[in-house]
Amino acid sequence: AEVLSCQPDAPSVSLSVTLDGRGLSWFHFPGSRWIPQSPELRAWPEGLETPGELLPETQMCREILGILGKQLAGLLPQARGIPVVSVFPARPLSPGGATTLVCLVENIFPPSLTISWTVAGAGATRGVTLGPFVPNPDLTFVRISRISVTPRPGDVVACVVASGRDNATTVVAYWVAPDTALDEQLDTALAGAALALGLLLALLGLGLALLARR
């Protein structure tokens, strides 16, 4: 699916190519080039749609928006989606190591919002990346932001999403760094308990077998 959208708010124009709801490429209008959604993917071939061929389509979208916007102003309510935000690590945590946190924002409409991060704690942070708006089959959009942190147990990381005119709607999702040492101790304790239970059941089975022979 190829979705071209235009709106009064920034970004005024966006264009994405998706496959089964997953983003493949998006068009960077200031740079007039296609950019792959992820590094392992190739960009949409320039020869299929050149920047010159896209300009008439974007101009038509803006003209239709201007005409319909004036005619329907005050007659139809504006569709607005409340963003659904979740924060999770991209990979399993390692004690004392850096990890990449993902902020997934769903149910976006219209595709205009800002994503920022706050970190409460001494964990070091590195570059923040912000992905494009990816359209869904239901005409809502998804956006992803990533941040690299070196968390300590108890550090709190928040993804703050502001949408609407003048950032009227704000949604915040939190992630608390777990104590991986406690998790390892718990895993060891559970493994030991499972081993002890297995030995106990084996002895019980052996005793029942001996009784049955008698």
TrEMBL record:
It is found in: Membrane. Keywords: Membrane, Transmembrane, Transmembrane helix. PROSITE patterns: IG_LIKE. InterPro entries: Ig-like_dom (IPR007110), Ig-like_dom_sf (IPR036179), Ig-like_fold (IPR013783), Ig_C1-set (IPR003597), MHC/Immunoglobulin (IPR050160), MHC_II_a/b_N (IPR014745). Its main location: membrane. One of its GO terms (cellular component) is MHC class II protein complex. The chain crosses the membrane at residues 189-212. Residues 83-172 form the Ig-like domain. It is a single-pass type I membrane protein. One of its GO terms (biological process) is antigen processing and presentation. It holds the Pfam family C1-set. This is DMA protein. It comes from Nesospiza acunhae. The lineage of its organism: Eukaryota, Metazoa, Chordata, Craniata, Vertebrata.
